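Help!! Second protein's tokens look totally different from the first
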Amino acid sequence: MKSLLKLEEFAELLLATLVFAHLPFAWWVLPATFLLPDLSMLGYLAGPRAGAISYNFAHHKATALAVGAAGWALGQPGLLLAGMVLLFHSAFDRLLGYGLKYGTGFGDTHLGRVGKVAGATSLTEA
């Protein structure tokens, strides 16, 4: 099952790349904007619940699709780019095992605990 889910995330990553390739932006724009969704982690400065809300909003696939669809419908390449960056970033994070956050702490995700867990030394052991 885990391999099937990773395959799905990889397909979403490829879809975002394919849509990006048809946008009027230079190739370097996607890698240059790749980490922008992680600015949502600044919400953790207001506490774990606020951090989880801001992080999850920026990393939720529905947000990515809504922004991308709005860009397409309105003929705004910048909005479509933003949606594809969000989708690409979120799919990449999920491939690495980083999921949506619970309000209990940054390491508590819908894909399991991220970080050191009961003596684990890496994410793959956790």
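Here's the second one for comparison:
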Amino acid sequence: MEDTPTTRRVAVLVATCSSFLTPFMGSSLNIALPSIGREFSIGALVLGWISTAYLLSSAMFLVPFGKLADLRGRKRIFVWGLVAYGVGSLLSGLAPSVGTLIAARVVQGVGGAMIFGTGVAILTSVFPPQERGRVLGLNVAAVYVGLSVGPFLGGVLTQQWGWRSIFYLNVPLAAVIAALAAWKLQGEWRAGDGEGFDWAGSVLYGLGLVALIYGFSRLPSALGAALTLAGILVLALFALWEGRARTPVLELSLFRRNPAFTFSNLAALINYSATSAVGFLLSLYLQSVRGVNPQQAGLILLAQPVVQALFSPLAGWASDRVEPRIVASAGMGLTVVGLALLYPLASSTAIPYIIGVLALLGFGFALFSSPNTNAVMSAVDRSHYGVASATLATMRLTGQMLSMGIVMLIFALFMGGTAVTPQTAPRFLTSVRAAFSVFVVLCFLGVFASLARGNIRAQPAPAVQS
């Protein structure tokens, strides 16, 4: 079917709105976590699981749903993902206990996986290569607008109506986007009709990822070590299975024969591993150590995503004209500097200093994200857009989980199960400094992964054979 200007406009609208929705939820929830902790009387480790449960379930299902979208239709998976996301949001708002809330976040994560694995793939399907950087830049900007609005609006909602109102707000937003996509978005953009679906590979992938991330979060206990090792072994078995499967859920040849695709995804994994927990740590720091209210904390954290939203379209436009690896690597380098500047965080650190560092991080993220997305999607044939989009989103979510996992491991070592309060501030700040030291080293290594991808314009994107 021909992709008309109307189809393109609707695709941009629904993909952009959905790209706003999920980061808005995450960033607004960061502000609400201290309030949730007080209501349910839980410590920092359990609070971390409210975020991690969503990320883990999303990462589990991203690649399988990306493949299903390629086979059955990207619009179909996209719309049902919005429905699942809305249901998970409603259940989260109604949750009577922290266990129920974590379970509802898992449902929300499944819906998020269906959205992440299809939104960028739909955009890449309807726009020609010479326009993708600009459109993907707008899409990434929507992510950062969600991150921008989230802390402020989340703070207002939490202070005025309680943390549950954040989840309730997501229900009508998801419903409106789903209805618009179902009604106005013409086309399914599927490939590989008649192919079977690799159920065994999908199960191995999900089990391996759960064991790895959950085990990592339980280190240094014996159970954590055993689960981490089991996760690695199951993922190795998954790789062997995919190499022999007739219709693999993940085309490993995308990695073996395509260094641009491989190193762009590796750069994304490292970048998100080094940066995703920054908002979580600073939200706890501002509210529990500095004593600011949720609304004030949201305004302070606003600096980073506002700068991201302003500069992401420009970075996407630049990646249409300059090699994406140059722009993205420069962004990663600036991020290293920003993380290093947060290392000496103390109870007396000036708030303007924190805002300035967050703005620098926002500029670095903007330079990295949309050019890196452009590099990933330009490195594959159109029949693999769904899997490529899902793989990149998996790198992002796995990186976010690893980032939270690093923080939870450090909390376990330095704080145990105690809550973050003014009395435990010294131990908390020691944990924060340890986390930022790890993040600086990770992000520094990520610069080299970003540079190693090569030039995507040196040759046409390879068509990988199934």
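Reply: Different proteins will give different token patterns, so don't panic. Residues 5-40 form the longest helix (36 residues).
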